[in-house]
Automatic annotation (TrEMBL):
InterPro entries: AKR, Aldo/ket_reductase_CS, NAD(P)_OxRdtase_dom_sf, NADP_OxRdtase_dom. This is Aldo/keto reductase. Residues 11-284 form the NADP-dependent oxidoreductase domain. Transmembrane segments: none annotated. SUPFAM superfamilies: NAD(P)-linked oxidoreductase. One of its GO terms (molecular function) is oxidoreductase activity. Coiled coil: none annotated.
């Protein structure tokens, strides 16, 4: 797959879990998991300055310094839109390099969108990143953002997308027409798309997909995924990640264990049949509705967003 000029595997890996505060993780096990995926066919890892306020980037930096083949993506927090260059400098010192710099969420509504996008361009011009992208932009905001760039195209939009949250489909279609890639966060719905019970970490407590999974329609999705997995003799996670591949998006599952890492690698070689795709699409039809990002966030001034994220310690 291509993200702009970057050559990436069809599946990546997300490193929010390495920030550790909102997830309960064993960092030694996590290191083994990332090492396994990055040494067995996955060459794309995603992190952000806010994950553990730099901790995730430091963790990823240690892994990728000895793995020059890995494409490294990170994100400038939405409240730092005006300081993208400074943020990217700090991120690069933790990571060693940045290949894709994304704006983590849209700037507050009082900020002219193009002003925020130009700050990303400045970071690229300063040589801090090879490509620029955004995150949590819906199709209409993305259409506007695409008109803003002067010297660097926006090559990607990272949004939530899984069989319990399919609201990104118009955006995926727009990406096909306008030449940007959709990167899917929470591809496993934080585990809720693949198993009946998930932990109650702070990261999952308010997650809409985790709630949806408990409804009769949500349970039907999990059942369909698990039945396909059983018939094919693969893990449910591999089935869901293969569904993303067939949709033309790049999923970035957040693995926590070595066993989960093996299931990501298993998914690299799995293709679903048309019937299997149809079955998952039909059963997950009720989840085409909804928002990809709570628009209310844009009404909150940047300094308050920063305060909230600092207190929440994501
Ligand atoms: N741009 C954004 O705003 C944004 C927002 C959220 C996330 N992200 C990015 O997307 C990445 C992934 O999203 P996410 O962590 O929210 O959700 P996810 O990848 O859907 O779920 C990750 C969780 O699911 C469970 N899991 C992982 N592999 C599994 C497997 N093979 N079988 C069963 N369960 C499995 C693990 O928890 P247990 O083992 O505890 O069950 C893991 O912590 C993050 O790491 C981050 O890089 C971006």
């Amino acid at each position: 797959m291509k993200i702009g000029n970057l050559d990436v595997s069809s599946i990546g890996v997300g490193a929010w879990q390495a920030g550790a505060a909102a997830w309960r993780v064993d960092l030694a096990e996590l290191r083994k998991a990332y090492e396994y995926v990055l040494d067995n066919g996955v060459n794309f890892i995603d992190t952000a300055e806010i994950y553990g306020m730099g901790k995730s980037e430091e963790f990823v930096g240690e892994l990728v310094r000895s793995r020059p083949h890995v494409v490294v993506a990170t994100k400038v927090a939405g409240f730092n839109w005006a300081k993208a260059v400074k943020s990217a400098e700090r991120s690069r010192s933790r990571l060693g390099r940045i290949d894709l710099l994304q704006l983590h969420w849209p700037p507050p509504a009082y900020v002219p969108l193009c002003k925020a996008i130009r700050e990303l361009e400045k970071a690229a011009k300063a040589g801090l990143t090879r490509e620029i992208g955004v995150s949590n932009f819906d199709a209409s905001l993305m259409e506007k953002a695409l008109t803003c760039t002067k010297s660097y195209p926006i090559v990607s939009d990272q949004v939530v997308y899984n069989p319990l949250q399919r609201a990104a489909e118009p955006l995926i279609e727009l990406g096909r027409r306008r030449g940007f890639v959709v990167i899917a966060w929470s591809p496993l719905a934080k585990g809720a798309a693949v198993k009946e019970q998930v932990g109650d970490d702070p990261a999952r407590r308010l997650d809409p997909a985790v709630k949806r999974a408990k409804t009769p329609q949500g349970r039907a999705v999990v059942k369909a995924v698990r039945e396909i997995a059983e018939r094919r003799g693969v893990s449910p996670a591999a089935v869901v990640l293969a569904w993303h591949k067939a949709k033309g998006v790049i999923p970035i599952p957040g693995v926590k264990t070595f066993a989960q890492a093996r299931e990501v690698v298993e998914a690299l070689g799995l293709e679903l049949s048309e019937d299997e795709m149809r079955r998952i699409d039909e059963v997950s039809q009720p989840f085409l509705e909804g928002d990809i990002w709570p628009g209310v966030m844009r009404a909150i001034p940047g300094f308050l967003q920063k305060l909230a994220f600092t207190i929440a310690r994501v």
